[in-house]
Design brief:
The chain is built from four helices and nine strands, in the order E-E-E-H-H-E-H-E-E-E-E-E-H. By secondary structure, it is α+β, with helices and mostly antiparallel strands.
Length: about 160
């Protein structure tokens, strides 16, 4: 089920600094919400650092960025600190937002089917409507694709 054209599902999660984040937190801003499988793994580190390295461009557009995984706040704090990530990482061990955003389910890893986080991203407009979704993200070039989408949507 695609969320494109629909409001972001209701949620209340803590970020890695202990702040409560809800859809109201995003109000008035374009927001990138990206789901990733695990802190400090190669693909997830590359993706997070790509957002970090493009932070100035995203900030110039007023875009908020949030990463989300099932990792703990302590794990997120270590990950964010080690890689100097300037954006919040949401803690979602119960899949309260991961599942409704379509970022949790069956996937194949190393030839085995399992359940886990499916690397994916949502682009949310300032009114809280999902304008673009990237299911099953490939890390390479992903932030560039988001920047292009923002441009095409007038941001």
């Amino acid at each position: 089920m695609s969320l494109v054209g629909k409001p972001l599902p209701s949620f209340s999660l803590a970020d890695h600094l202990g702040n409560t984040v809800t859809p109201a937190t995003f109000a008035g801003h374009w927001t990138v919400l990206y789901a990733y499988p695990k802190d400090s793994t190669p693909g997830c580190t590359t993706e997070a650092c790509d957002f970090r390295d493009n932070w100035a461009r995203l900030q110039a557009k007023g875009v908020l960025v949030y990463g989300i995984s099932r990792d703990s706040a302590a794990s997120h704090q270590k990950f964010a600190g080690k890689h100097e990530l300037p954006f919040p990482l949401l803690v979602d061990p119960e899949k309260a937002l991961l599942a409704p955003m379509g970022a949790f389910g069956k996937k194949v890893m190393y030839g085995k089917e399992m359940e886990g986080i499916i690397r994916s991203t949502l682009l949310i407009d300032p009114q809280g409507i999902v304008r673009k979704a990237w299911p099953k993200v490939s890390v390479k070039g992903h932030v560039l694709a988001i920047m292009e989408a923002l441009e095409s949507l007038g941001c």
